[in-house]
Amino acid sequence: MDHSFLLMLSNLLHLQNSLDPTTSFLSSTLSSSTTTTTSSAASPTSSSSSASPSPTSLLSSSSAAPLLFFTIASVLSFLASSRPKPKSQTTASSLNPKKTPSPQNPNSDFSVSAFRALSTETIWSLEAPIRDAQWRSLYGLSYPVFTTVVEKLKPHIALSNLSLPSDYAVAMVLSRLSHGFSAKTLAARYSLEPYLISKITNMVTRLLATKLYAEFIKIPVSRRRLIETTQAFDELTSLPNMCGAIDGSHIKLHSLPSDPNLASHYKCRYGFPSVQLQVVADHKKIFWDVCVKAPGATDEAAHFRDSLLYNRLTSGDIVWEKVINVRGHNVRPYVVGDWCYPLLPFVLTPFSPNGMGTPAQNLFDGMLMKGRSVVVDAIGLLKGRWKILQDLNVGLNHAPQTIVACCVLHNLCQIAREPEPELWKEPDETGGSPRVLDAEKSFYYHGESLRQALADDLHQRLSTR
């Protein structure tokens, strides 16, 4: 019972005794209690006979004090029993009464229920620009593009018997790819085990890199797309029949392989461990070829020569019907690259990296590098949008599929015309021209004649305007 209530009851008892000394409830109760204690073992009857005065005897007193006392005591007793009991506090809180309640678990914002509420309820109450901006901040792409990815991957994820919903698993992986979170960081956020985060990441990136690659990364062989691409590059560079730009990028690894002999192959010329990414982009900064096959110590020319694209180009497997005649030379569609790539009829490179050529050659080099800028910007967008590629924190065995998955997602965003993020700045290019292989000599001489013909034609056309 509350201490203040006991104190008030005691005061009322003393007040009653002073008003009616002939009937003392307190003294009778005390004497009754003493008698009961000393005689209960010998005679139960005497215990009941020495009980306190009955309410009837008190009410028959000549004074009004007993009635007043019981009335007030009853009211106080009712109030005391109806007061809400304070919540029990822990020892730590009683020692520190100023301690505020612990905040809500932040991981609840990333639970399945929270994601479901966001994607099925809250999302429809927002205007599209606000909705998509929120989705991009979380997963790197807008809500419509996100649903496209989920719908295309859902049948394949269903076959894996994953215990999580497909859209939740995709959202989790996109969150990791777009923000560069490690498996440990993401596990703490989503209240899951790190090994499960890694397993889901590997599954989703593998599906993106295999099941969606052929749909979203295509060589422009159809006449309609080829004409659109070459015309766009012509408007940009004044060079005819250019169909793409090729470049490489070092994808930094979070850590070197544990094997010292293997580690030396992955340390690139910029001083950090990496794997090589090779891409070809069109005028819209959409990749139409992606290759990840070489460790960081490999140069661009060797990586290119080991790629499927090189084998298809040299064997004539890729059939481009659009052929133009320039100063007596049949020029098929070609890609452009910097001086790190071999000069071939289908890969044209600058005459000189330092502007030491003739006026026609220097003009050609300037226009060629202008066309090449699209692939530089495409790689900058890729790393700016999918920040995991700035410091790849996945296992070495899963690095290629993660990189290719990000390239597929990049194309999805470019096709959907997603807002372009700030470009990631690549290190300055270094390295010299590759040597000409014996097997490439005929290609090299053919490429030289084509490049000179295009340079002379460009110089004549622009000088007469």
UniProtKB/TrEMBL annotation:
<dbReference type="InterPro" id="IPR045249">
    <property type="entry name" value="HARBI1-like"/>
</dbReference>
<feature type="compositionally biased region" description="Polar residues">
    <location>
        <begin position="87"/>
        <end position="107"/>
    </location>
</feature>
<dbReference type="Pfam" id="PF13359">
    <property type="entry name" value="DDE_Tnp_4"/>
</dbReference>
<dbReference type="InterPro" id="IPR027806">
    <property type="entry name" value="HARBI1_dom"/>
</dbReference>
<dbReference type="GO" id="GO:0005634">
    <property type="term" value="C:nucleus"/>
</dbReference>
<dbReference type="GO" id="GO:0016787">
    <property type="term" value="F:hydrolase activity"/>
</dbReference>
<feature type="domain" description="DDE Tnp4">
    <location>
        <begin position="246"/>
        <end position="411"/>
    </location>
</feature>
<protein>
    <recommendedName>
        <fullName>DDE Tnp4 domain-containing protein</fullName>
    </recommendedName>
</protein>
<keyword id="KW-0479">Metal-binding</keyword>
<dbReference type="GO" id="GO:0046872">
    <property type="term" value="F:metal ion binding"/>
</dbReference>
<feature type="region of interest" description="Disordered">
    <location>
        <begin position="36"/>
        <end position="55"/>
    </location>
</feature>
<keyword id="KW-0540">Nuclease</keyword>
<keyword id="KW-0378">Hydrolase</keyword>
<dbReference type="GO" id="GO:0004518">
    <property type="term" value="F:nuclease activity"/>
</dbReference>
<feature type="region of interest" description="Disordered">
    <location>
        <begin position="83"/>
        <end position="107"/>
    </location>
</feature>
<comment type="similarity">
    <text>Belongs to the HARBI1 family.</text>
</comment>
<keyword id="KW-0539">Nucleus</keyword>
